[in-house]
Each structure stands twice: as structure tokens, then as C-alpha cells.
């Protein structure tokens, strides 16, 4: 493994930043303290900072000193999950019911470390755009930033990002050209019934029976409508109806998600959900409404950027630690909206430990320097010059730390 000593000197500060962010997590579009912390640190590095992008997003621009060249974006997500932390680190969440259970605190610390490195090493062509994105967990933050004019205000040619992967051992890098992670669509289905006494069902319309049929019928989309060589998941994760054992309710509500690795399969699955609901609606002489929310396309990595990431990974962790065609994941990530707008690559950084979203999950601070080294190696390749390894070794001064606490 090759990580320069100068990048290694950032490890202790990245650990401290990460622990601060972890202790004060904030959920989607409420990342005000996190955004202030990030912006204050970036300003202390002497770089250009813009806040309030897509509500709570932060964008930083670092200009190279060697003239015109490409503009490369690097992205990290900032939000936490609405769940309780059961682990007992000394920096555990101080907020009940909010927890950095997916490692976004680690992603932010890696991008901050990269920003500090680049601020001290601006000997490159072009520009680097650093994107600190809100609301990834509800897959709405990237679109909010795009809707707020991200591409027009801060244009870039390519974009790169990473996500920690507990399923990979530390020091492993995984990536895949093409579809690497699934689209993510959430839906709510409301079955309208006619309430009546449970002993006289013929006087009403039972939405529970219709809903139960719907749960089974939706599974035929995957088994009978989708090409067996394609990957699609349809899951009903919540089914609520009724409040008493002797009352047929007036409504049943089903919540679920659709995941697919291609746009065509995604469209087919959504179309068939509508067809099945319409058929049951007609068969039962009732009304079934479908509402979609929090949607994002599949992550599609472009060939050129993937080759760049693989080359960087060979340099940083060694060829034997690189999985160049990792199996696709049916979990989504709304970096997909950025990758749909511009070519780029989202790669996986092995860290071991508990799986993301486990109540005892914790980001592995030891892999943060690998993340910085990967981003720096990608930039070295894409910006066409050797980025000098001159980052200052000293830590952020205590005054800066005090102003960035939240």
C-alpha cells in the first residue's frame, strides 16, 4: 500500500473532525450544524466556500495554479439516519433517535482531508469542486442541489465519490463499470374500502383482502414480467390497516420500494405495479391510488472514470486489493443523479465491521487516509500534472476548532 506520509499526517485531524460530526448527527435537510462546521474548516484552509446549495449543501472551489484545465468534482454526503445508536463510543450521538449509522461522517472527514491537502498543494491545472451533499438517506439531496443550479453555478467535467463498504475488508477497493448500484423508488399504495362489521363482510369492501392479494401479485412482476437475467427487487415493507379485530376498515396502506439495475427494468416494474393495481381496482369495484416519492436512478459508472479509479487503486492499495468488477448492489445512492448528469465513478472503500444501518455501526477511521489518497491519485491522473506532496503537517489550530464546534 502506498499512502504518502503527508496524507498520513491528516489522519489525526480527520479522526477528530469525524468524531465531532458523529457526536452531533443531523438528518436530511437539517444538517445546519454540520454544514457550518464544514464551511468553517474549509475557510480556515483558505479556499472558496459557498453555502446553502440545495438547502444545506456546501460547495468549495479549489483553483489550480498551473492554468486552465479540466474541472473535477468530488462528493461526500452529510446526513445521518433517524435511528438510535446502540454502540458506546465516547463520541456517540448526543441526540436521541439520530445516528450516523451509514458512515457519512467518515465520508465528510475524507473530503475535508482532501480539501486541506489540495489547499496546501494547488500545483495542478484546472479546478476541483468539492460537493458536501445533504439528504442522501432520503435520496433527495443531489437533486435538490441540481435544482438549485449546481451545474450552472459550479460546472464540472467529471465527478467521483466513495462509500464505505463493511462487506469488504479494510484496504480493499471495489468498483464496477456500468450499473454498480440499483435505482431506488419508494411508493405508497392506498386501497380504498368500505368499512363494515367484521361479521358482515358482504356489506362492505375489504381493503385488507385486496391488499393481501396485492402483496402476492406484485411479486409476479419479478418472477414473470422481468427478464430473469435482469435484477429487480420489489418489497412491501409496511402494511397498515384497521384498529380493531371486529371492524373491517375503510382503508389499507402499503409502503414499499422498487430497486433495479437498468432504466428499462425500472420503468417496466413501475408500469406493471400500475397495471396490477388497476386490475385489482376494477375487479373489486374500488379505488387504489399509488404515490411515488424519494426516487433516484441506478448508479452508472462511466468506463473512462472507472479505469482511472482502478489505476488509482492499484497505486494506493496494490493490485491484489482491488476488485475491478465487484458484484452489483441493490442498495441505492443518490449520487446517481450526479452521475446521470456528468460522467464519473462511485467506488467502494472497504472498512470491515458492522453493516451500514446496524445500530452498532461505526466508521473505521483507519481507512480515511486511503480515501484521501484515492481522491488525490484520481486528481493527479485527471488534472494531468503531479500534485506536489507539500501539505503542512501541523494540525488545525485550537481557535479554528473552537469556531467549528456545533
UniProtKB/TrEMBL annotation:
**One Pfam family it belongs to:** Peptidase_M20
User: Which residue range or ranges hold the Peptidase M20 dimerisation domain?
Assistant: 187-278
For this UniProt record, give its keywords in alphabetical order, as a comma-separated list. Answer: Hydrolase
The answer to whether the entry has keyword Hydrolase is yes
In the UniProt record, does the keyword Cell membrane occur?
no
Source domain of life is Bacteria
InterPro entries xref list: Amidohydrolase (IPR017439), Bact_exopeptidase_dim_dom (IPR036264), Peptidase_M20 (IPR002933), Peptidase_M20_dimer (IPR011650)
**PANTHER family under this entry?**
METALLOPEPTIDASE, PUTATIVE (AFU_ORTHOLOGUE AFUA_6G09600)-RELATED, PEPTIDASE M20 FAMILY MEMBER
Name of the protein this chain belongs to: Amidohydrolase
